[in-house]
Amino acid sequence: MQANSPDNNDIRILDLKSGLVPSCLYWTCDEVCDFFESTLNLPEYKETLRSNGIDGKRLIYLDASHLPKIGINDFKHMMLITKKVRELLNMNDPFWNRSISFTPRDPIELYYEAKSLSGSKSDNLTYEDFSQSVRNAKWEPPKTNQGFIMPSC
């Protein structure tokens, strides 16, 4: 399926109509490069972004653990990039000490991860469909081998 097929455009329109999905999720690699140049004032990373195929779907991967893997090693740049990407995607800061006994993360953040994958399943996924499947899933806290709920630390 091509990137500009009517099906993908319909999905993009449905996502953007929801009001919860930011338009940057559908940016091309060139639009991400423009963002780095105009907003972040970091044009030196344009070729890095292009060679790694960073488009809107893959913005979620621009965090402190992934940036060095694609060649962005300047700590101040890493902090700026991760901060601005979180702002673009309306994501909360990750908590390094988050307990697994907590309820799952915000559905929109889980949607970004599902949408970042390649393939027709993620290409055809809308936020509405995804949120229905997440909302209907039964979440239970972690339990011990005896079936007791594990205490949170």
From TrEMBL:
Domain SAM: 27-91
InterPro entries xrefs: SAM, SAM/pointed_sf
Record-linked Pfam families: SAM_2 (PF07647)
Annotated SUPFAM superfamilies: SAM/Pointed domain
Gene3D superfamilies: Transcription Factor, Ets-1 (1.10.150.50)
Protein name: Sterile alpha motif domain-containing 15-like
Originating species: Brachionus plicatilis (Marine rotifer)
